[in-house]
Amino acid sequence: MTRFAIIALALLSWTLSVSMLTAGEPTQSPRPLIVAHRGLLKHAPENTLANFRACLELRLGFELDVERSSDGHLVCIHDSTVNRTTNGQGRVGEMTLAAIKKLDAGSWFDPAFVGERIPTIDEVFALIAEYPNARVLIAVDLKAGDTNVERDTVKLAVKHKILDRLLFIGRTISNTDVRQRLRTANNKTQIARVANNAKEFPASLEDRIANWVYVRYVPSPDEVQRVHAAGKRVFIAGATVAGQKPDNWRRVTAAKVDAILTDYPLDLRLSGNSQESSD
Prior knowledge:
The chain is an alpha/beta fold. The chain has one domain (30-270): Phosphatidylinositol (PI) phosphodiesterase (TIM Barrel). It contains eleven helices and nine strands. The chain has helices spanning 3-22, 49-57, 97-101, 121-129, 149-159, 176-185, 201-206, 221-229, 239-242, 246-254, 265-270; strands spanning 33-36, 61-68, 74-76, 138-142, 166-170, 192-195, 212-215, 233-236, 259-262. Strands 1, 2, 3, 4, 5, 6, 7, 8 and 9 form a nine-stranded mixed beta sheet that branches. It is globular and about 50 Å long.
C-alpha cells in the first residue's frame, strides 16, 4: 500500500470517528476556525490542489502563498524559487507560467504525488468556489512584491465569489501601504494587522484599515473581547500555536479567538478545540 493510500485511509477513518463521536451531541458555542499552514503540509505536498482539496473535504481552512511569474500570472508557491518544492531550479519571477507548469511539485514529497503541478491562484480560488457552503477561512500571504498584486488577487477572489472567505496576511500585517491597496481594491476585503505582543495590541486594534487583529502571543480574554466589541476579529499564528501546543490551543479557545493558524490542523481538530463546519 502506498503512503498516499495510507494517508487517505487514515483521513477517512478520522472523519468517520469524529462523525460518530459528535452525532447527537448538543450544539456547542462557536470555536476557532482552523487554518492549516500551507495546507496539510505533513500529509501532502504544500501549496498544491491535492492538498487544498483534502483540506476543503475535511472542512479545514488553509493558508496559501502568492508569487508572480515573469509573464504576470499569480501562482501559488511559498518560496521565491522553485528549488525546494519541485524538480526544477530557478526564481519564480524569472520563469513564465508555461515553464512553471512543466515542473513536478509533488514527487519531492512522495512518489504518490508525482505530476502534481504548481497551481495558479485562479485555479486555487476556483477550487475554493467548488465548496460554497464550507465554513472555512483562507489566509492569503502575498509574497509577490509588486504594487498590483493586491488588486489582481482581490479581482480573482471577486470573480470566483470567495472574497468573504479570504483573510490577507503576510506583508499585509506590517505594511500600511499594502493594507491601503487592499482596501482600495475592495472595501469588503478582510485585512489583518499584527500585534506581536500586548504593547502592540492597541495600535493593531485601532488601525482604521484592518478589520482583523493578528496576534503572535496568547491574548487575554479581555483583549479578545475588546476586539469583538470594536466589530473586528482575532487571528492567532506564530510559535504559540503553530506546533503541538494543546495548552495554548485550549487557552486561546477559551479566550474566544476567531481563527488559529497551525502546522497541526488535524491534531487541533481532534483536541476538540475547533469549530465544526459543514457543507
